[in-house]
Design brief:
Largest sheet: 7 strands, mixed
Helix content: 25-40%
CATH class of the largest domain: Alpha Beta
CATH topology of the largest domain: Rossmann fold
Number of strands: 15
Strand content: 25-35%
Shape: globular
Structural class: alpha/beta
Distance between the termini: 35 Å
Order of helices and strands: EEEEEEHEHEHHEHEEEHEHEEHHH
CATH superfamily of the largest domain: Vaccinia Virus protein VP39
Length: 300
Amino acid sequence: MDQHLKGWFTERLPVCPGEAFSMQVKEILLEKKSEYQDIKIFESTHFGRVLVLDGAIQCTERDEASYQEMITFLPLNAHPCPKKVLIVGGGDGGVAREVAKHPQVESIVQCEIDKEVIEACKKYIPSMGCGFDNPKHRLYIDEGTKFIECTKEKFDVIITDSSDPVVPEDDSEEGKKGPADTLYNADTYLKMKEKLEEGGILCFQGENMWQNQTLIAGMIKSSSQIFPVTKYAYTCTPTYPGGQIGFLLCSTNKDAKLEEPVTVWDDDTAISMGLKYYNADIHRASFVLPSFMKKFLREL
């Protein structure tokens, strides 16, 4: 399927068979192939600038806050003192931008495999690319699992902001393994746990509960063997498949109540911090699942 046809971009992914999502394009700003993936950035008519990797929409200026804020503040505000944070992936800079807003965070370490995504977002989507400019931030260009194996540092929170493990291959619904594939397995979860301080929290992108239950089941089964507490949450992002994306949160603390924020900001504080989506009520509500998903998780 031609993804750019007559002024429209169309997303069609193997993780969502039988579906397509189209967005009207005002201007294509960048098209290139890096060592790892295809990169496209365009100006849309209604969602601002859009980052696309390997044919999949990663973020748009209009609704990115619903994802970036939730993958950041769900784990950070469930931790009593998140001083040191590792971001794996997150090449658009949005998660780094949000982590830096948290007043308790003192150090942000980020490992991203594709420096060309970083440079593209700094140039064409500076509202997110600005995340790389914070003085608390240290950036390493490396493959995530390799960095985790080699680093001697430990962290209070690890956030894995990755693309899908499967990307399109021609018109095959099976697709092929993407750059983030190695982040979705038990061996990697164990290595991440070893890099967490006592009481540390891991949060990673958890796919869509309506469309990707096989992937979700694999992630939950693998992580549950390693962490005493795992919880599934979700957010609503209109330009993601199904309008929704999930998160899997794991804690090394067997008594952790991840669905109850330890840090709570009132509305005025949240607005002054520049938050558009996240608040304490949304934090709690994101763990409230529909009946079909509760049943699915019970049967794993």
